[in-house]
Amino acid sequence: MGVFLNMFRRLTDAYTKNPNSNVGKLLVILSGELDELNRTLEKIEQWRDVNQAEGTTLDLIGQGIGQARGQATDEVMRILIRARVAQNLSNGTFNSVLNALSKSLNTTPDNFEIIPLYNHPIDAEPAALSVTGLPLNVLNASGLTVRQFGQIAQKVVGAGVRVTVVQVVGTFSFSSQTNTSETDVNAGFAPLDQSTGGTLGDAYDPENEIDLPI
Phi and psi of 156, rounded to 5°? Predict the structure, then answer.
């Protein structure tokens, strides 16, 4: 309607300025096509953003950086694209790996931690690290499983470095007080309807899952 009003207002006084006139009906047809063209151009502009693109547009973006889709959904494909870009920019340092993994999950680096294992008191390993403290809700929001995120982490770290553990933390915890009127609905046991209660954590486990093309 915006295009139609702009065109209609620009008519000279030689024409009848009536939307129901022949000229008005012609402008309605023409402006409708221009409105549809503008909507298409706006969508093209929006879908340049990986976070908004869908379907084959994501496939084309992935092709440009060497990232295949495989069986990934649009949500996971966006993560793979962000991870591939971050992987290409990573120089293998701890800060760059942390930044790359946080960008792949569309979160901030302070949401988890990378720990080197070369000086581990029990299972020391010179070229290994673990990812710990990743909130379960962050991983769930991404649509990835723990193992799939572990695959991405393994691709982001430097060559010859092994990711041994990816630890995901939930919100479940026991109370330190036995008698209290104040309870945290996001920490304790859940009722039958699962409306409240804490979530358990998880850890990287090489079980049989869908392998991502990373």
Answer: -80, -35
Q: What is the pTM of this model?
A: 0.60
CA distance 140 to 76: 11
State how far the Cα of 132 lies from the Cα of 114, in Å rounded to an integer. 6
Please name which of 150, 156, 190, 192 lies closest in space to residue 170, comparing C-alpha atoms.
190
Which runs of E-coded beta strand occur in 28-143? 113-116, 128-135
**Residue 199 in tokens:** 């979530």
165: DSSP letter: E
- What phi and psi values does residue 34 have, to the nearest 5 degrees? -70, -35
- Determine the average pLDDT of the residues in 176-200: 58
pLDDT in tens, 113-151: 888 888 888 878 888 888 888 888 888 888 788 888 888
